[in-house]
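input
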Amino acid sequence: MRFFIKGLILLSLLLVFSCGTTRKLKKDDSQAVSSAVVDYGRKVMKNVQTEQSVTAKVRVKAMADGKDVTVNGSLRMMRDDVIQLSLSMLGFELGRMEFLRDEVLIIDRFHKQYVRVPYSDVDFLNKTNIDFNALQAIFWGELFIPGMSDVVSQLNRFSMSSSGEHTLLTLKDEPRLEYDFLVNTATALLDRTMISPKDLTQTGEFVCRYSDYTKLSGKQFPKEIELNFTGEGTKMQLILSLSDLNNKTGWPTRTEVSSKYKQVDAKGILRKLIAQ
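output
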């Protein structure tokens, strides 16, 4: 059980923290003209889910420190508003993560404690320039530009190159981090998102892979999302397998925290988890 709670907290940190290493994909020497990049980027963005809500049952497999655990739960997302991931075991909700536009809420029901912090108070969020829009894009399987909500109007900021049956779109003007998006050339569906530093002396990597696409309200949506994180002495993989995908609305978009729960410091939890 302790490993699950550790995995729960690390999952939330994984989704908002990334430091990287060198990219393992080799780009072509030639760059496509800007108009071609914008045209192909628009093709990719046309695959974006147009419904305001996405809900699903989720099976989460977490692997870290040579251990693994699998739990069930639910994923509920409201476009431009909230991402909720609830994890349960034997019918009991062990924890919940709620990402809002301005803050992150992590509830540990097993220990009756919670963390509620604004994005501005999370050092690693500030360092990586990952905001709610970026987190939303990761969960929805979309392109993103840190700090921007309108990607379509900024597609000229990407460069484009080929890699086998895939096209690599790279955000070329971010000063510290490299944001790569590997897309299936024929389908224009996102295959993976990679974040890595431009400083090659740094170590670590964040890679999110998408697979098993299925139709959801006329658009393709990934049924499997694999999150891989290495860095700060940690290596972790989480596989989210989605089922019963729907566009249900009417569910509570905010989680009320019981007055019996103790608010704790996120940094303190992180230090404790790393020490275990």
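quick obs: The chain is about 20% helix and 45% strand.
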